Amino acid sequence: MAEQQVVADLREKSxxxxxxxxxxxxxxxxxxxxxxxxxGGSRVKMLLSYVDKLPTxxxxxxxxxxxxxxxxxxxxxxQLGGNDKHAISCESREVAIxxxxxxxxxxELFGFxxxxxxxxxxxxxxxxxxxxxxxxxxxxxxSFPVRQRSVASGTxxxxxxxxxxEDAVGKDVVAELxxxxxxxxxxxxxxxxxxxxxxxxxxxxxxxxxxVAGVIFGTGTNAAYVEKANAxxxxxxxxxxxxxxxxxxxxxxxxxxxxxxxxxxxALDNExxxxxxxxxxxxxxxxxxxxxxxxxLLKLSLQSAIFGExxxxxxxxxFHLRTPHISAMHHDDTPDxxxxxxxxxxxxxxx
Length: 351
Hints:
Elements: H1 2-14, H2 18-37, E1 47-48, E2 60-68, E3 72-81, E4 87-96, H3 106-124, E5 136-142, E6 146-150, E7 153-156, H4 173-183, E8 188-194, H5 196-207, E9 213-217, E10 221-228, E11 244-248, H6 263-270, H7 279-284, H8 286-303, H9 323-330, H10 335-350
Parallel strand pairs: 2-5, 5-8
Antiparallel strand pairs: 1-11, 2-3, 3-4, 6-7, 9-10, 10-11
Helix pairs in contact: 1-8, 3-4
Pathway: Carbohydrate metabolism; hexose metabolism; Carbohydrate degradation; glycolysis; D-glyceraldehyde 3-phosphate and glycerone phosphate from D-glucose: step 1/4
EC number: 2.7.1.-
Domain Hexokinase N-terminal: 8-206
């Protein structure tokens, strides 16, 4: 009966009935309003992205992209054809970040990124030359809280996930990258700095003009949406001609007493790099869910015989899910995964 009690207790403390979800939604809305009211007024930062116009699908040209948001980063080159042609071609490469660079120095991290970007450009442009002597344009997706003052500059507020590079906090991440690229002799200009949620919103709007929000559930979690510029009290200066502003919510730091935080969540938070922060992210995102499951299974196995006589060694080992693992799962088309997908659909339909 011990395992039944543990499962029943977990089910009760993790339950999310509609009434609770309404309370969570109301608390989130209150935090959003407070974050729009003034800087530092909310745990949900509601950062201005300085993106007031989104793609139309008519854009043309050759562009480079750099996406840094987890334990790896991706570089890409895309040729946009405009109108109904959209993306004519796209080449990309994923690079794992050595763990020691995630807690080293800013110059080491951005130096490594710039060197890999230079290699990618060299490989992709073999036998070709940049037309009209134009500097390469780079879009920089940086999936950490940044306070922007323009579309192409922003200072790092704090690191999240597995990063803890102290000397980068408060610095302009675009300037850091630009300096590193110059040292590599790379003729490239950062034209825009955006968060991954803002990028997701922009990418979706490129194909569908009705899209108004982008949501990330990966290594971490975040959301961005289109807000009316005159509904942002903390906005300083002249309102944009479009009358709109994309808001980077940084909702991973959201917390409310209504959230179903269990003993497993509390233990994980206490042992994390940033105790008391990013609670919503720790409850919902890929970096933490596997570790929470491990803790539940360990308690079940220690307090009951539900799994029989087993060696607890592996269950006592912390589970670390890195971005490359998530990427591999996204590309997994094995029979086992398809079976799991079918079963999940059945369960959701029943629920």
